[in-house]
Amino acid sequence: MKITMAHGSGGIATEELIRDVFVKYFKNDILGAMEDAAVLPPEGGRIALTTDSFVVDPVFFPGGDIGMLSVCGTVNDLLMSGAAPKYLTCAFILEEGLKIGNLNRIAASMAAAADRAGVCIVAGDTKVIGGAGGVLINTTGVGFLPEGRAVSPKRCAQGDALLVSGNLGDHHAAILSARMGIENDIKSDAAPLNAPVEALYKAGVDVKAMRDITRGGLATILNEFAAASSLGMEIFEENIPVSPAVQALSGILGLDPLYMGNEGKLLAVVGGRDADRALAALRSTELGKNAAVIGRVTEKSGAVLTTKLGGRRVLAVLYGEGLPRIC
Amino acid sequence: MTIEDIKKALREYGGPPTALMEVCGTHTAAIAKNGIQSLLSDRIAMVSGPGCPVCVTVSAYIDRLCELSGRDGYEVVTFGDMLRVPGSSGSLADSKAAGGRVRMVYSPFDCMKLAREDKNTTWVFAAVGFETTAPIYALMAGQAAEQGIKNLRFLTSVKTMPAAIRWICEKNKVIGGFIAPGHVSVITGSEIYKPIAEKYNLPFAVAGFGGESVLAAIYALTRLKGQGKVVNLYPSVVSETGNEKAAALLLKYFEPGRAFWRGMGGIDGSGLYLKEEFAYLDAGSRDIARDVETPGCRCGDVLIGNLSPGDCPLFGGVCTPQSPRGACMVSQEGACFARFSYERTGSE
User: Fold this and answer.
1) Cβ of A180 and B104 within 8 Å?
2) What's the domain range around B9?
3) Are residues A187 and A235 in the same domain?
4) How far is A132 from chain B (nearest CA, A)?
5) Which residues of B touch A254 (CB under 8 A)?
6) Tens digits of per-residue pLDDT, A153-196?
7) B313 preceded by cis ω (within 30°)?
8) ipTM summary value
């Protein structure tokens, strides 16, 4: 069975598709009401709201698929603001010819990721367009900010520590390997980052700035933080965690893990005195077991790398094409 | 001697000021990425040479690709690097945005697949590169001939190094030694530089691409100043005579000819073109015999080591990686890109 234009008509085929795929996997009372809008109970605190579209190619890749990515990406954006993620909406743009079996796989994977991230999918939409059996997904997320959390690169101060939650480049390398037909054991790191973030707060760490390290990679975020804080971000190449497999692949292809996208890694800026506690907290979680302190905030502006050889150089922003459609 | 000894010697180098040229773009990138210049005495200047395939491509080549991309039934297939190189009236990316058919691939063999799957399109592969990449194009040409693929064309801009290095030795009297191109040497062998080294009394060091290998090569060149010697510091990969199989494959399909280099003009015997019997696979590569630079762009001087990227009037102002005016600012292996991206300090 494949998606046809009838599935986007709003008629019986649309209704069947929603019932047999989306409602089946995303089952919850709010969605189950099947109204035009999800009506949510009142909840205290500030609201965090974010949206993201997912166009990854291929749709299924080692370590994940577009469905789990569409949940993780939006959930992680909420988490990076310090919020606890709660609700998601999802809009599907399906291309004619998409196998319904594949759509089932994608929906099941979204449901599993939502479950893991502690969010409910409460509203959705489906459209069908001409094409070649592809699928695009937009998700919007709502979360709530507990009292006292303030995450912004403007809060960075000289002497703060920079930490990453694990090995860089896995997602980028997995997508690239899939596209180039290279066989290796590299898997995407796509995952909701609830556990590492909660561990940081639970340990009493004051997280000053936080970002998930997606498109553009670590170097791009360090430049953004440097610009926002008018301070310097200095990192040490020998402290940056990269798996041997990703290091080898990027060496062959001329890629730099500092510019490669991830879907389950974060950069956190914490006070210098919080560094050890923050590292221990991250490492106490499965997702953060390879976490590392990679550098510090300095007085001078810009992002700078001290290389393994002891040389120093500017860490530039990403120029040019990068790799399209990795998320 | 340990790497720490070499670092100390290069940091404290007190000999006469010298400029050393790394010919290969991959070395340019390695030097920048490892922060090598920051480890050297002020008396040693590293100068980038014409070894980045994108940078030495003339604008007429880009113009020809742009024209083909707009032709009915044609599609241009290219490596990503080439997309943003400015021609005389726009880049391939501009042509694509204007409706031209341009496709980026990671492997040249993707182009073979496209040609087999869509026989109604003439697929034009933008075959740029040096001795290193050329054997792959020879393999492709061989496959196309054997399998009777009729809808594949090459627009070649394949260049060979020795003639270009000789040309630089004639024109530039400042260079005191060369880090020889590592990848190219795998194919050609290290002995190919010997006649040039001896004629101009300049040392050549064949080196790998790790930061430590590059430092070792720089150290060797400072020690061999004024001596026409070739040292091979990459013997695990580069032999004296090179990869004879690849060289033989190359000669089956390609023959040498006059090639145009950006900013350097035409150099006899510095290019490779498909032989007459395979000319049906060619999209007019030999007709590209001119070079028009963007006004004010001094890539030509940068490429032969006569001008430091930072001294070009366009550098960092109107010409940046975001909006490149010259090819040296486009490629990650270009001298201007490397300087702009890695070597500025926070205060610049």
Assistant:
1) no
2) 3-52+161-232
3) yes
4) 16
5) 26, 29, 332
6) 999 999 999 999 999 999 999 999 999 889 999 999 999 999 99
7) no
8) 0.75
